[in-house]
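dumping this here so i dont lose it
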């Protein structure tokens, strides 16, 4: 049976795009099973007292995910997108059992190393595949749908895990969700997902036709340097992504402790923890498409400044209502930033090296998990939990100002990037 000709665009590839959205929701769900439960498990079952030690699981998750993101981009170009996606799900298989059976905290840390590798391979690959499919015109919308699915699933699974923990205990019930996600994702990725490298090749050919010449081939080192330092838009996106995920990493480890320390029950802690990624996820359905119409730079700037305000409100809050408002605002600020950063990378990076640039960007962005764990743990141990939140607010403010000063507009119909 012959396959239909390769065409770029969301509508032309809706079935495959929708399948990848579903797979990415399962990727997000793997994180959601941990968010509410692990900080409470650390305190109640493993009797951990130091915040820095407690946050080791976020630290190793961030480091392993960040490093794997880089290789995911390179391997996707070398071996294809689909094999990398399947490998990511195979690596996740032991994770739920390790979380359920862990006799000491070292098992939890080891499980999160594997979870970080899983997230780096699967989430990076679904991003790259969606960018391959849609082409340049609806890149922001595509990234909004992708990230909405992933972080919407984080929120939903956080609530479900909190409910299961309240009803049946911290183990094993919440982590059975992850086991089910792995089985379903492996089936979808193996049987139904198709390779998308040929779509990137088509876009590269169209790019050359439109400009009269093909872009020069860049080495891995050149892509890394351009994305990290020398291109004002790519490097601004990388630092902003790092600070954004620093906030998420800090929230993952410390927010449940801050909220429970104020006397809130587990189910209300779970709800507060879920509000942030829920608004983040749903908001991206709007902000991703808006960035296609309004451009990228101003949404990113506004989003980082909104996060700074939200974190300040969390630092001064004392009850459920105040924290609910603040976490909703934090989610809204993150929604402005998250799909827009990925769309900006896609705008600037040529199709021939875009997967590698996405990998470098996600290397820096997901290093934020580790940075958030270190910053949150050290400041909380030296001062207190609220001081750690204030520190994140200050970094978010600085990041927003940096984007406003240094980044150029990347949307192809809004302005023309400067020559490298």
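and the seq i came up w/
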């Amino acid at each position: 049976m012959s396959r239909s000709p390769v065409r770029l665009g969301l509508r032309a590839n809706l079935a495959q795009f929708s399948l990848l959205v579903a797979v990415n929701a399962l990727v997000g769900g793997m994180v959601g099973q941990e968010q509410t439960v692990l900080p409470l498990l650390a305190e109640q079952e493993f009797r951990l007292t130091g915040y820095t030690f407690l946050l080791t699981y976020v630290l190793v998750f961030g480091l392993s995910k960040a490093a794997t993101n880089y290789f995911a981009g390179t391997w996707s170009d070398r071996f294809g997108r689909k094999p990398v996606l399947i490998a990511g799900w195979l690596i996740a298989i032991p994770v739920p059992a390790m979380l359920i059976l862990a006799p000491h905290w070292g098992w939890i840390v080891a499980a999160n190393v594997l979870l970080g590798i899983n997230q780096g391979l699967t989430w990076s690959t679904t991003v790259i595949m969606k960018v391959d499919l849609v082409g340049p015109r609806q890149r922001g919308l595509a990234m909004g749908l992708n990230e909405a699915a992933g972080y919407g699933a984080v929120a939903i699974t956080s609530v479900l895990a909190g409910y299961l923990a309240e009803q049946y205990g911290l183990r094993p019930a919440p982590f059975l969700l992850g086991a089910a996600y792995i089985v379903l994702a492996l089936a979808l990725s193996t049987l139904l997902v198709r390779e998308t490298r040929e779509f990137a090749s088509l876009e590269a050919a169209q790019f050359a036709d439109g400009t009269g010449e093909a872009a020069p081939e860049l080495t891995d080192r050149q892509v890394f340097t351009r994305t990290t330092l020398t291109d004002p838009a790519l490097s601004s996106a990388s630092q902003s992504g790092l600070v954004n995920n620093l906030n998420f990493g800090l929230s993952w480890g410390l927010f449940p402790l801050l909220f429970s320390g104020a006397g809130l029950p587990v189910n209300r802690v779970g709800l507060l923890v879920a509000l942030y990624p829920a608004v983040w996820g749903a908001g991206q359905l709007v902000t991703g498409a808006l960035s296609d119409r309004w451009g990228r730079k101003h949404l990113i700037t506004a989003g980082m400044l909104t996060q700074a305000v939200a974190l300040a409100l969390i630092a001064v809050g004392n009850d459920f209502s105040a924290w609910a408002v603040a976490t909703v605002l934090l989610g809204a600020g993150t929604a402005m930033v998250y799909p827009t950063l990925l769309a900006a990378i896609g705008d600037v990076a040529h199709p021939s090296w875009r997967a590698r640039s996405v990998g470098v960007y996600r290397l820096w962005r997901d290093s934020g998990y580790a940075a958030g764990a270190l910053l949150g743990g050290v400041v909380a141990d030296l001062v207190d939990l609220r001081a750690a939140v204030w520190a994140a607010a200050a970094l978010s403010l600085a990041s927003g100002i940096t984007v406003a000063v240094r980044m150029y507009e990347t949307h192809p119909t809004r302005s023309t990037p400067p020559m490298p």
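DSSP finds 17 helices and no strands in the chain.
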